[in-house]
Every structure is written in structure tokens, then in C-alpha cells.
Design a protein that fits this description.
single chain; 1359 residues; mainly beta; 6-stranded antiparallel beta sheet; 18 helices; 14% helix; globular; EF-hand-dom_pair; HELP
Length: 1359
């Protein structure tokens, strides 16, 4: 919020005494404040009287203090601000402080805070804190910042939907809010508190420095904290779900970058006839394998319990599955099938991972400004809980003995430690460890003691209410104060692994060392220590590569495992020993031990005397960077190199490392020679180049510069090698004649980043870090560019005309790499945010359709397609992981493949849309109209407030504090006349209890017919509700709104209490929301220009996946089993969700008539079962889909009947396989789905109901679960209910249907139906009022009966 750094200033010298006050002192001060003052402000005399009343010892000291705090010199201080600021700096738990502030601002004394009261509390407390620290008005956050935070608190914490927040709700929200906890964390610096890490009377006299070998681990933790502190400061003031892109400086930088790219791309010229076109992307990606492991972190690998383990034949093979983190993915490896599956809910680098004692659930924590903990099922990969609290990162996790509690340690400045009831998704207690980096954590078996260890610090925690109280451990004369690396419990004794190679046993009750063992070599740090159920003791791993299993009393069981001497082999039998033997993680189950190594390798050891073995299961790069990768032109192999000074070759089919070569320097660039790929060029960070054969034997080496090689590439004919350097030059070599240098390209102003050759090998295109593009001939001289994609093969230059559009969609992130697949004309690009996206090639303009795939964390250094385009490989620069993606083609109709595709007609004009349906134009442009209506530009705002200059304060007016007091009366909403139908459809539903649920204004309305009472979901939505969906159980409802930051609210129909509030992804509005058949997932379609699609695990408030869909408006969407259908004007797509990514497949139209296909405009879609769906169009056509393929028209049995007008409403029942359709002309049809046939059962005309309707156009339909009634929402905003038993069924399909007449119905609600409603007047003597509006209708209402008693249509809009 505002200048977040200003909140961390030290207290003024005169105010330092307040840091010693407790909350009890503040309560005394407040009592004195109420006695002495009548309002909120205090003059000097009142201020002195209040302080001396509460603290007599301050007599004579308050005069100077008042002068110091009165920074504006008006002789007054705001008492509530002063008390709020004191509360922030006083001693006490967060809960005690929050309760005091809560009571202070509960002006209505109703034990809740409204948005206004919360906003006042936050603003006054922060302003009071600034006063105590010498801050100025410039340091004060804006009112808008506080309003945004208060609105978020209400949206997330108001569980009962009351429009106010109780104390417990407020504390739970604050505990989970990154911004709030970040500010609270910073206040520890304000109060000057220092964590004491040495116990009183500790007899330890020796202290070891941190060994150089473990400094990287400590520095890594510190650098991560500093990095994310900086990000946190930059993002402070934005809503928690918004990215840092909102920062104005960031936007300015982004605009400059785009301008630079556009200028460079434009300099190449634009050939006629090659402009980017809106078209479907013909392929998608599916994550197949990750070559990598997060080896910068420790204790993050463990066995899982799986069904394969129970089979007797697998007993000798050991556990089938284990899990580990790779980049932002949790990987579950099945060693029996040699397959990987991925947990994909994390959004950044996974820092910690621990398996539940039951062996099924996995807890994992990530880095980031919002560092959530995820608990997930290791077999199904489903999320069980998301635990939000920490900022910067969660680097330590631990389960208690029975798995009921989870412990976490964060990477914020004070290293917050939290104990979770993970199943309830709440914190049990929390505390802080201090500023020292924490390296290990564990919980005692009876959960009474928690031990956290770090650099020269061991802390024991105990639960005290909602707080974790810490006690520093006494090292005593038995040990040394040093870096404590790891910890595990046996019973209630804590065993701590030390940098000296020793293990200390602590008595947790007395918090002191009682025994010491030299478990590993002298000063070989014990990096991993874990409970071992097989031995009843521990298993330890050290930096020297030795792993030991210990029984009770720390007696070694069997012989030690020495990985430095291990003759390890891969599963294919290739002997590849570990490069770095440091053991970072170890886990034992039965006779099997799995080890995570510092070099990125995962080994499994069978620890038996007879048939023991060691084998490598996973290989990975380690170090700081994975700089490059290259694919072979013929074989399915890929080469990689990075800062770990290794060159590696991977087999795509075998999914394993097949060769490795140690290098004298870090590798920075790679390129295979074309055609047969006999040579591999490697560039090094010292400016050297080496040419290897396929056996990684050096064939040639040369060096012509001292700075790093940044890129290299062979010409398509194989005769030339170009090497780009950080010295801004490109060096050309003759690849045929011993790599003699033939030229130098000089002219770039920054390091060269990418290069391309034309297909005839005569011209080079190159980019540099300043986003310049240059062209060179084969001798190194400047030349004119050939423009057009036909001149370039596998383009890798990200700054060029062909791919200029990629930068428009980069959202401020630099495009770090691109690559073209010429077989599909698809370009893959990677950016600095770790996203991989597919576009059609060329992509010359922004806003094009694209598919986004995530998994990396940090920049992607290289993206390369395999020969043939069957795979895409992406190298993560910071996560050091190589992702192998399957590049799949979408299935096409046979006529499409033969070139005889039937194209849908072009987009319709507004006049054509209005002719199809008067409401269609409003619906398609609802977002623009509503946003425009609610937006006020600065100039317009000034015009609206022009009256300010024409009013004046009355003479003799005196302001009184009582004028700010709240009123003694409240308004309670009792009835709403109206139902939104003009620009939204299918938003009228029955609940399981038979109540009627619909949307109106910013409300969800629940109408009980039996009591004639309306209830409301109100106070959460901040703008018009545009979409509604009922949960399959009929007890929950989801509603979505319009607005700049639209909310999706899931709420209980009976109580109208919130169950979840989702926001942060969509902009402008949410036009469609739908639950899946189980109710676990919720899809939403946005009203932005690209009609973005999102899928939520709503119970976890977690965005599962998202993608842009189409520039054309999506009119219908639903789940069909595990797929998602989206449809609109001229398109129908089926989406598949896998590994956190959404991929689409265009519908296959086999058997659909040319007329129906060319005129297709999807209006509704619903699932009939887990595979079959039903769609409708503006022409009245109904189509059945089996999976993605159209079913024959004979599957719809309807005789001569068909809808002649746009079918705008559709509903399918849960479990009974019935469907209802309604069209613009007022025809409603009921259908039965059975035996792969959709059969017409009833049909009637809404015009025949016994009620005068304003409009008979059907906008929503719904059938009661018991089949007795049918709800119909009309374009006239009327809700009517008809009895189904009064409508005769069809005995046969007759040529002339005997339409039922005089259908009995009940009008449940009605209202104005178009534009805005302005006119309102109440009768002076009767319970009547009249309304009028843009629908050219005047309506007279009776208050008692809550009904319209008369309506009159006039000739124009009424205001």
C-alpha cells in the first residue's frame, strides 16, 4: 500500500517507550480517552490528561511528546489514530492486537465491522503508526488502497453473507493475507525487538564459523528472501491476486520495450499478403517428461504408498512410486512403468516437499509473494487443501506423527512458523523464528514440541493458545554453536544434524543438549536427517556422500552407503556415476533407500547383503543456469549444457541420460550440424568453442573472443558456422575447412542473442539484447533483408516482422526464445515468466489466438522443436529443468484434410444480429456497455462535480463530532421487482429445496413460493450479476458479475452465506459459469476481448488452469465429462485439462449438412451424459455430439417438429437424462435422452399461457427435480411457472402438432426489461408506487401484494 517502506521506519526517540507497552496498557489508555474526551480529536491538555490517567509515571513527559506528534501544527491529535498506531507497535500477539483494534472501531457495538469501519480502522492505524515514526502525508497510502483491502476482506471473510465481518473472520482473513502479514512482519523492525537465540546460562563456550561448503545453502536462502522482499515492496498496494505488472514503472518499461520491438520489426518491411490471420492453432502441447530435479533444496524426496506395492511379485522390487519437485511441478515417478505424472497447481518453484505418514498425501510449498502450501493426493494428483499464509517462500515442512497437523516455516524476514490443521485449512498457532535463516524443522511424536534449527540457532516451540512460544536451546559444554543443518525426532527427543558431522540429541523438555555422536566425517555437514521406520531410528546423509541407517541409541544398522564409491548404473545399464555426491535428501522404506544428490541425480539403493544394488533413476543439471539445448536433425536426442560445466545428451524415447561430458567452463550455446548431425558445436562462457562428434569426443576447438559465446548456428547447407558473442560481434567459420574464420559481423550495440540463416544460407538475421535486428551476408557485411516466412526455416530470432505480434501479448515479459515448426506453421515462444505459448506463424500483430502452457519457474532459455515437430523441448534457465512436450496435432474432419473444408460464414453485422434476435446484440456487447456506463473519466468526473463551485457553507455553521456518528436505523432489503434477462440467459434455476434462484442487479435472489418471501445473496458482488450456475446437489449456487475486477461467488442457497469468492483472473466481466458433474470444478468465461476461459477448484479458491479462447464471443460453455465445450459464432471447441494446461480440439462435423455448418452460431450447450452433449444455434438447429464428433441427425427423434427460431435457453436434468429447450419465438420443447436417442416428449407455446407477457422470447428454462413444474424466464423479465402435468405428452410424431391451449401458470416476478430504469414516484396516500424506464413501459406497483397491478406502454423512453 503506497510507500510500503515508510511503514518500516524506526520509532521516534520520544516514542520508543511505547514499544514496551502491552495490549492491557492500551485498554487502560482507551478507558481514559473515553473519560476525558467527547469526540475523536484531542487538544494538548486532553492528550496529557489521557496519558497521565493511564500511566501516572509519564507525568511531566507528555508536553514534548504532544509537540512532536502534532506534525501539522494544528494543536490537535486524532485519538483513534493514536490508539491504532500504538496497537501496531505494542507488545502482544497478533490476535490480541487485532481484537483491540476490532473493538475500537466497532462503532455500532454489534461485534462486526462493515467495509467502512474496516477501512477506517486500517487507515487510522497506519496513519497513527506514521505519526509515531515521523512519517508525512506523502508516506500515507491512498484511501483507495484501504478501500480495496477492506473490500477484499469482506469478499473473502464474510462467510455468512451479512455484509460485515466478525472478529474470528477478520483474523482468519488477515492471517491469510500477504499484504497484511507483510506489514505486521515489518513492524518487528519498528519496535526494535531482537530475537534472543542463546538460552540464559548456556555453558557453551565454543562457536564454529559457517563451513565454506554449506555457505551456498545459507546464501541461497538469504538471496531468495531479499529477492522476494524486493518484489513484495514493489507489489505492495495491489490486490493480492494481481500481478506486479500494475506497477507504473513496470508499465512504462513495457511500453518502451514494445516500441523498440515494433521499430526493429518494422525496419524489415511487411510483405503483402502475409498479414497474420485469425485461425485455429492446429496443434497443442502435452507434458511428457521432465529431465530435472530441484537439487538446490533439501529433504524433498520420499516414497509413496501405492497399490502396486501390495502385489507379492513386486516385493523384491521395492516401492513403485516416489515423488520429488522439478521446477513448479510435483513429479510422481513410477519406476515399474518408467512414467512420470505431474501435480500442476503450483505457480512457482517448489521449495519444500514432505510425504504424509500414511504415504498417500504430499505437502509442498513454493516460493513467491503469495507462497501457498498445497496438500495433494500423490496417486490421483487431486488437491486436498491449499494453505495461504507465508510470503517469499515456504522452505521447510514437517508432518506430525499421525499426519493430523502440518508445520511450515516461511522465508519472510522473521521466518514465520505455523502449525496447521490442514484438513480444516486453518492455522492452529503461529510464531516467528527471527532473522536467522532456518534450515530444518520437526515435530515430536506426541506433537507437544517443535524444533526449528538454523545457523547457530536451535529453537523449541510450544503451543500457547493461537501462538507458538519459542525457547532457545542450550548447547551446553557438550557441543558447539554452529550451523545446524537438519533435525528429526525419536519419541520426544530432537536429533540435530550439525555442520561438524555430529548429531546432537536434545531433551526437548529442558531444551538442552544431552548427548553427542560423530555420525559422519569431521566437518562433513549432515545435510539430511529423517525418521526411519524400518530401523526404529534415523537415516542420515552428509556432504561426503555417505548415507547411514541408525537404530535406537544411534547404533549403525548394517554398513554405510558411500555414494562416492558407488558403481551406480542407470535403468538401461549405462554406468554414469554421480558428479556431486552431497546427499541432500534421503528416505528409506523397507530395504530400499532413495537419495537426492547435489548434482541433480536421484539414486535408489537396495540395502541387503545378497542382492543389493545402486541405480540411478533420475538425472538432472544442477548449478545456477541451464543455458542451452539443441535437437538432433535426424535422431530423437537432445543435447543440453549449463553452469554445472557438463554437456549432456538425452534419449527422447528412453527418457534417460545417455552420455555426459565434463567441461572446463560453463556451456552457454549449442547447435547440431544440419542433415546428418555429425557435429555438435558448444559455446563456453570464456569465449571458446568446441566441436564434438556424437560420442562427445572433441573434433576441433577455437577461441576468438574473451567474452561468453551467447549463440551459435550452422547454415542450412552445413558449410558455415556463425557464433554470436557477448562482445556484440558474430564470428563466421568455414565448417568444411577446419573451422577457419572467414569473417566478423560488427554492428550490434549489445550482446548477440539469436541468429537465423535464410534457407539458401546466404543471409544472416541476428538480434541483440537491445532488441535490435541486423542482416548480414555470408562475408559479414551489412545487407538488405529478405522479408517473408518463405525465406526463413526454423526461425529463432524473437525480434523480426514474422513474430512481432508475440511481444504485444507478452504482458511486459521479455520473449527469451522462439522456434518455428515448419511442418505445422506454428511458433513456440518462451518468456521470462516461464510460460510456453503456441501461435500460428507468422504472427505479425498482437491479440492473436494462442495456447499457454506452464510448468517452468523463471525465464526459459531455449525452446526447440525436434526434427519432424513431434516434440518440443524447453530449457528453464533458473530451474535447470529440461521439459519434453509432445507436440500433438488436433484431429480434423476428413474434408478438411482434403482441402474441401466448409468454412463458417463471416462475422455478422450488428444489424444482422438484431434481426436474428433483438436481445443478441445486447448480450454480445454487454461488457462494453456496462463498463462504459460505470466508468467516469477524470474530465467527466469534473463535469459531474461542477455543482461544488455553486454551494457554500451556511453562516455560523459549526461542525460537531456527533455529525459523524452512525444513524440509529438500518435498511433491510425485503423485495426486488425484476429479473435480468435482456443480456444474460440460462440464469433461472430451481434449488434442491424447490426455491427459485435467479440474478438481479448485484444480487442473487432466492424466492420461496410457499412463504412468498425473497432472500438475497448481497453485500459481496460489487456490480451487476451476469451469470449463474447451480451446483449438482442443488444446495449451492455460483454467480459471476461484470466489472474491472469481477467476482465469482459460490454461496449456500438456504443461508445465502459465502462458500468461496474467486477473483483476480478475469477482467471486464464473467459471462458464463458452470459446475462440472461432481461439483468439484467450476468453469468461467470472461468478457474480455479474447473471451478467456478459466477452471477453478472452487473449494480451494484455486485457479486450476486458464487460456484465451477466441476473439469471437463465447455464447455457450459447459463440462462434458472431463472435457469442456465452448461455442459461439461459427465455432465449437472441446477443451482438455491436463497437467494444469488447457488444450483445444475443434469439433468434427462429419454428417452435418453444409447449411447447418455454414450458418452455425452456437447459443446453448449442455451435457446429456459424460460423453454426449447437445448444442443449439440461432437458426433453431439442434446438434448432438459424441465426444468431439457430431452425431447423425437421426439421433434426434422429433418427427416434423423443429425450432424455427434461435434456441436461446437449454437445461438438462441431473440423473434423469431429460432436456428442455426454448426459443426466441416462445416454443418450449421437452426431450428424453435414452439409448443414444434424443426423443421429443412434450412441446408447447409460451404465448398460450394464461398471463399477459411483455415478451414471449424464452431466455431461461428449468424443470423441477420432481418433474412437476417448469420455470420460464422471458425477454420481458418475467418469471413464470407452469405445471408440466397440464401439458399433454406426444403419443406419436404427427405432421401437425396439437398445441395445448390456455396453459395454467403463475407469475413469480416481473420488472422492467430493457436499458435503464429512471422513473420512480410514490403515491401520497396509498401503498402504491410507479416506475418507468428505457423499455417504454410505465408500471404501477402495489406495496402490500408486491405485484404489478397495471402497466402501460408509451411511445418513448421515460426518465
Amino acid at each position: 500500500m503506497g510507500n510500503g517502506g515508510s511503514l518500516n521506519k524506526p520509532l521516534l526517540r520520544e516514542c520508543e517507550l511505547f514499544a514496551t507497552w502491552k495490549v492491557a496498557d492500551l485498554r487502560k489508555l482507551f478507558e481514559a480517552f473515553q473519560k476525558v474526551t467527547a469526540g475523536f480529536s484531542m487538544i494538548k491538555a486532553q492528550f496529557i490528561g489521557v496519558l497521565e490517567e493511564a500511566k501516572p509515571e509519564l507525568q511531566g513527559k507528555c508536553d514534548r511528546l504532544f509537540t512532536k506528534l502534532d506534525n501539522d501544527g494544528d494543536g490537535r491529535l486524532d485519538g483513534l489514530e493514536f490508539l491504532g498506531g500504538l496497537c501496531l507497535v505494542a507488545k502482544g500477539s497478533f490476535e490480541d492486537k487485532a481484537k483491540f483494534c476490532f473493538e475500537l472501531y466497532d462503532f455500532n457495538l454489534n461485534a462486526t465491522l462493515s467495509v467502512t469501519e474496516m477501512c477506517m480502522m486500517m487507515q487510522a492505524s497506519v496513519c497513527g503508526l506514521l505519526c509515531l515514526t515521523g512519517g508525512t502525508e506523502d508516506d500515507e497510502p491512498s484511501v483507495g488502497d484501504f478501500e480495496k483491502l477492506a473490500t477484499e476482506a469482506l469478499a473473502r471473510a464474510d462467510a455468512d453473507g451479512s455484509g460485515a465481518v466478525g472478529y474470528e473472520e477478520f483474523v482468519d482473513w488477515a492471517r491469510s493475507n500477504v499484504q497484511v502479514m507483510s506489514i505486521i512482519e515489518g513492524l518487528s523492525k519498528v519496535t526494535g525487538e531482537v530475537t534472543v537465540d542463546v538460552a540464559d546460562g548456556d555453558s557453551c563456550t565454543e562457536e564454529d564459523p559457517i563451513p565454506p561448503e554449506i555457505e551456498p545453502y545459507v546464501q541461497q536462502l538469504e538471496s531468495r528472501s531479499k529477492l522476494h522482499d524486493a518484489i513484495n515492496r514493489q507489489a505492495t498496494g495491489t490486490s493480492i491476486e494481481l500481478l506486479e505488472d500494475d506497477n507504473e514503472n513496470f508499465k512504462a518499461t513495457n511500453e518502451k520495450m514494445l516500441t523498440k520491438v515494433e521499430k526493429s520489426a518494422a525496419s524489415t518491411g511487411i510483405p503483402p499478403g502475409e498479414a497474420a490471420e485469425e485461425d485455429e492453432i492446429p496443434s497443442y502441447l502435452e507434458l511428457d517428461w521432465i529431465y530435472g530435479y530441484n537439487s538446490t533444496d533439501r529433504d524433498n524426496i520420499a516414497y509413496l504408498s501405492s497399490p502396486e506395492d501390495e502385489k507379492p511379485e513386486n516385493e523384491k522390487l521395492g516401492p513403485a512410486r516416489f515423488c520429488y519437485p522439478a521446477a513448479a511441478r510435483g513429479v510422481v515417478f513410477n519406476k515399474f512403468s518408467n512414467t512420470q505424472s505431474f501435480y500442476s497447481a503450483h505457480t512457482d518453484h517448489i521449495l519444500s516437499m514432505q510425504v504424509h505418514p500414511g504415504g498417500v498425501y504430499v505437502a509442498s510449498g513454493q516460493r513467491g509473494i503469495k507462497a501457498d502450501i498445497h496438500v495433494w493426493n500423490g496417486l490421483t494428483l487431486e488437491t486436498a487443501a491449499v494453505l495461504p499464509l507465508h510470503i517469499n517462500g515456504v522452505n521447510l515442512l514437517a508432518w506430525n506423527h499421525d499426519g493430523s497437523k502440518l508445520l511450515s516455516v516461511g522465508m519472510n524476514n522473521d521466518h514465520t512458523v505455523a502449525l496447521w490443521d490442514w484438513q480444516a485449512k486453518k492455522t492452529v498457532a503461529s510464531g516467528v523464528c527471527g532473522e536467522t535463516p532456518m534450515l530444518g524443522v520437526a515435530i515430536s511424536e506426541d506433537s507437544s514440541s517443535i524444533c526449528v534449527v538454523g545457523v547457530k540457532q536451535v529453537l523449541f516451540f510450544a503451543v500457547d493458545g493461537r501462538c507458538l512460544r519459542s525457547k532457545p536451546a542450550s548447547i551446553t559444554s557438550k557441543g558447539k554453536r554452529q550451523a545446524f543443518m537438519s533435525v528429526a525426532y525419536i519419541g520426544n527427543d530432537a536429533y540435530v544434524g550439525c555442520a561438524s558431522g555430529e548429531v546432537y540429541r536434545f531433551d526437548s523438555a529442558e531444551a538442552k543438549v544431552v548427548e553427542v555422536w560423530q555420525a559422519h566425517g569431521f566437518y562433513e555437514p549432515v545435510l539430511s536427517l529423517a525418521r526411519c521406520e524400518a530401523s526404529g531410528g534415523l537415516i542420515s546423509g552428509a556432504m561426503d556422500g555417505v548415507c547411514c541407517v541408525w537404530g535406537k541409541g544411534m547404533k549403525m544398522v548394517g554398513s554405510a552407503i558411500d555414494m562416492a564409491e558407488a558403481a551406480a548404473v542407470s535403468p538401461d545399464g549405462d554406468a554414469i556415476p554421480p558428479l556431486d555426491c552431497s546427499i541432500l535428501s534421503c528416505c528409506m522404506k523397507g530395504n530400499f533407500v532413495i537419495l537426492g544428490m547435489g548434482g541433480g541425480d536421484l539414486f535408489e539403493i537396495k540395502k541387503t547383503d545378497k542382492d543389493g544394488y545402486e541405480r540411478k533413476l533420475i538425472s538432472s543439471h544442477s548449478g545456477e543456469k541451464l543455458s542451452c539445448c539443441a535437437t538432433h536433425p535426424q535422431e530423437l536426442v537432445v543435447a543440453t549444457a549449463g553452469s554445472d560445466k557438463t554437456l549432456r545428451v538425452w534419449s527422447v524415447r528412453r527418457k534417460t541420460l545417455v552420455d555426459i561430458r565434463k567441461l572446463p567452463n560453463a556451456g552457454t550455446a549449442l547447435a547440431f550440424s544440419p542433415k546428418e548431425g555429425k557435429n555438435l558445436c558448444l559455446g563456453l562462457d570464456n569465449g571458446g568453442c568446441a566441436i564434438f562428434d556424437l560420442y562427445l569426443e572433441v573434433q576441433a576447438a577455437f577461441q576468438h573472443c574473451k567474452e561468453a559465446v551467447t549463440c551459435c548456428k550452422y547454415s542450412p547447407n552445413g558449410k558455415m558456422l556463425a557464433v554470436g558473442s557477448a562482445d556484440t560481434n558474430i564470428y563466421l567459420y568455414d565448417a568444411v575447412k577446419g573451422y577457419a574464420r572467414t569473417g566478423v559481423c560488427r554492428g550490434h550495440t549489445a550482446p548477440v542473442t539469436q541468429m537465423d540463416f535464410t534457407t539458401h544460407s546466404r543471409i544472416i538475421q541476428s538480434n541483440d539484447a537491445d532488441l535490435n535486428v541486423c542482416f548480414w551476408d555470408e562475408f559479414g557485411d551489412d545487407t538488405e533483408p529478405p522479408v517473408g516466412k518463405k525465406y526463413w526455416g526454423r526461425t529463432s530470432c524473437s525480434v523480426s516482422w514474422q513474430v512481432a505480434g508475440l511481444w504485444q501479448d507478452s504482458e511486459g515479459g521479455e520473449i527469451t526464445t522462439i522456434n518455428i515448426d515448419p511442418h505445422t506453421d506454428v511458433v513456440a515462444c518462451g518468456d521470462e515468466f516461464g510460460r510456453v505459448r503456441l501461435y500460428n506463424y507468422p504472427c505479425t500483430e498482437g491479440g492473436q489466438l494462442n495456447l499457454t502452457f506452464q510448468g517452468h519457474c523463471g525465464p526459459i532459455s531455449r525452446a526447440r522443436f525436434s526434427e519432424g515437430g513431434h516434440y518440443l523441448f524447453t530449457a528453464g534457465r533458473e530451474d535447470c529443468c529440461l521439459f519434453q512436450w509432445k507436440h500433438q496435432l488436433t484431429e480434423m474432419d476428413e474434408e478438411d484434410e482434403d482441402g474441401g473444408a466448409v468454412e463458417p460464414i463471416a462475422g455478422r453485422t450488428p444489424e444482422e444480429l438484431a434481426k436474428l434476435d433483438p436481445f443478441l446484440l445486447d448480450e454480445m456487447h454487454a461488457a462494453e456497455m456496462l463498463i462504459t456506463r460505470s466508468s467516469i473519466t477524470p474530465s467527466a468526473e469534473g463535469a459531474v462535480k461542477s455543482w461544488l463551485s455553486m454551494i457554500a457553507e451556511p453562516s455560523g455553521f459549526k461542525f460537531k463530532d456527533e455529525m459523524l456518528a452512525s444513524t440509529d436505523c438500518d435498511l433491510v432489503l425485503s423485495w426486488v421487482h425484476g429479473y435480468r434477462a435482456q443480456d444474460c440467459r440460462n440464469s433461472l434455476r430451481y434449488s434442491a429445496a424447490g426455491t427459485v434462484v435467479y440474478n438481479c442487479a448485484a444480487l442473487g435472489v432466492v424466492y420461496n413460493k410457499s412463504t412468498d418471501v425473497q432472500a438475497f445473496q448481497q453485500g459481496t458482488h460489487t456490480d451487476d450479476v451476469m451469470s449463474l450456475s447451480m451446483h449438482p446437489d442443488g444446495q449451492l449456487c455460483a454467480t459471476g458479475q461484470v466489472g474491472d475486477l469481477p467476482l465469482i461467488v459460490v454461496w449456500d442457497v438456504a443461508s445465502q452465506k459465502n462458500k468461496a469468492v474467486l477473483y483476480g483472473f478475469h477482467t471486464m466481466g464473467v459471462s458464463i459459469i458452470k459446475f462440472n458433474s461432481t461439483g468439484k470444478f467450476l468453469l468461467s468465461v470472461g468478457m474480455d476481448n479474447m473471451n478467456s476461459l478459466a477452471v477453478y477448484d472452487w473449494e480451494q479458491s484455486r485457479l486450476v488452469a486458464s487460456t484465451v479462447c477466441s476473439k469471437k464471443k463465447i455464447m455457450a460453455s459447459c463440462f462434458v465429462g472431463e472435457k469442456i465445450l465452448t461455442g459461439g459464432e461459427g465455432f465449437l471447441k472441446f477443451w482438455t485439462l491436463k497437467d494444469g494446461n488447457l488444450t483445444s480440439q475443434t469439433a468434427l462435423w462429419d454428417g452435418v449438412s453444409v447449411i447447418d455448418r455454414t450458418n452455425f452460431f452456437c447459443m446453448c450447450a449442455e451435457a446429456l451424459d459424460d460423453k454426449v452433449s447437445l448444442t443449439s444455434g440461432v437458426s433453431g438447429v439442434l446438434l448432438l455430439w459424441d465426444g468431439i464428433r457430431a452425431m447423425p441427425s437421426s439421433a434426434i427423434q422429433r418427427g416434423s417438429f423443429k425450432h424455427e427460431a434461435s434456441v436461446n435457453a437449454m437445461y438438462t436434468t441431473n440423473g434423469t437424462s431429460e432436456a428442455v429447450t426454448g426459443d426466441k419465438a416462445g416454443i418450449v420443447a421437452l426431450w428424453k435422452w435414452a439409448d443414444k436417442k434424443l426423443t421429443l416428449t412434450k412441446v408447447f407455446d409460451v404465448k398460450e399461457v394464461k398471463y399477459e407477457l411483455t415478451s414471449t422470447s424464452v431466455r431461461s428454462v428449468c424443470v423441477a427435480d420432481d418433474g412437476t413444474g417448469i420455470l420460464i424466464g422471458t425477454g420481458g423479465s418475467e418469471i413464470i411457472e407452469a405445471k408440466l402435468d397440464a401439458i399433454p405428452g406426444l403419443s406419436s410424431f404427427q405432421d401437425a402438432i396439437d398445441w395445448p391451449k390456455g396453459i395454467e401458470c403463475l407469475c413469480l416476478n416481473e420488472g422492467h426489461c430493457s436499458g435503464e430504469t429512471w422513473g420512480l414516484a410514490c403515491h401520497p396516500g396509498k401503498d402504491l408506487f410507479v416506475t418507468a424506464g428505457d423499455d417504454m413501459t410505465i408500471m404501477l406497483w402495489e406495496t402490500n401484494s408486491r405485484s404489478c397491478v397495471r402497466k402501460r406502454v408509451v411511445d418513448g423512453k421515460v426518465r
